[in-house]
Amino acid sequence: MGYGIRLLVSGDYALFTRPEMKSERVSYDVMTPSAARGVLEAIYWKPAIRWMIDYITVLNPIKFDSIRRNELGSKIPQRNITTAMKGGAIDLHQYIAQDRQQRASLLLRDVAYIITAHFEINCEKAGEGDTPEKHYNIFLRRARKGQCYHRPYLGCREFAADFSLIEQDDPLPQSAYVGQPDTDLGWMLYDIEYPSDTQKDFVAKFFRASMKSGVIDTRREVIL
Prior knowledge:
- There is one protein chain.
- By secondary structure, the chain is mostly beta strands.
- The chain has a single domain, classed as Alpha-Beta Plaits (2-Layer Sandwich).
- Strands 1, 2, 3, 4, 5, 8, 9, 10, 11 and 12 form a 10-stranded mixed beta sheet that branches. Strands 6-7 form a two-stranded antiparallel sheet.
- It is globular, with a radius of gyration of 19 Å.
């Protein structure tokens, strides 16, 4: 196991979309491990390391809100972008008035989590100077200063996340679910992995999530 960190993340809204929902977006009850990894990578990412999520602690009571939003109904085709990159004359605009689509979303409100994680060195991409101490100290410095490559978000980019590092000697915020019965959250997306950097096919990994006193152990995953 590599060097471990604890990060407090919070936000007014979050939407961790269930992949089985096709037209309307419905959030999982809690943050997924892949979303937690995305938060850490927004703060510090290098090809030489890979973040591994150990625990997700749910601090606030789980509350849902339903909203409706105007969205674009389609995306710009990849072939059009390729044509434009080659110098072809093609329109890459999207016109909201012609492609407006109203969709409902069931999202989470007033969320806060503690992400407990560690990183492992990717031996295939690490160089001689890629030591665990180096990457660990860089992450600590960036997290303490609030630095990030892009603003971390909670499932969707429009739901920005606030974050702060929990130091080793800092007391942990208490979960609202301490002392409550265990909660079976069902099957949850663990991560999406690509066999190689050049392949488009992916493998979706799921795990059976269980919350005990607000803590979800994400160290064991099951591939479906």
